[in-house]
Prior knowledge:
The chain is an alpha+beta fold and 66 residues long. The chain is built from 1 helix and 4 strands, in the order E-E-E-E-H. A hairpin with a 6-residue loop joins strand 3 (35-37) and strand 4.
Amino acid sequence: xxxxxxxxxxxxxxxxxxxxxxxxxxxxxxxxxxxxxxxxxxxxxxxxxxxxxxxxxxxxxxxxxx
Length: 66
Ligand SMILES: [Zn+2]
């Protein structure tokens, strides 16, 4: 398996997810648009919802939005 994939073009949006159960944060690149599992405690996270929240937060702060 290739591990050096940092130059790979990712067409899906990266989204920062935060687990509501254990507080773990990680970058998720969208294998599923809807749900992701926390790598730490395996809680199911609603990706869609977090993306919306992330978008709102970015636009409020005036951080660059794609
Ligand atoms: Zn967790």
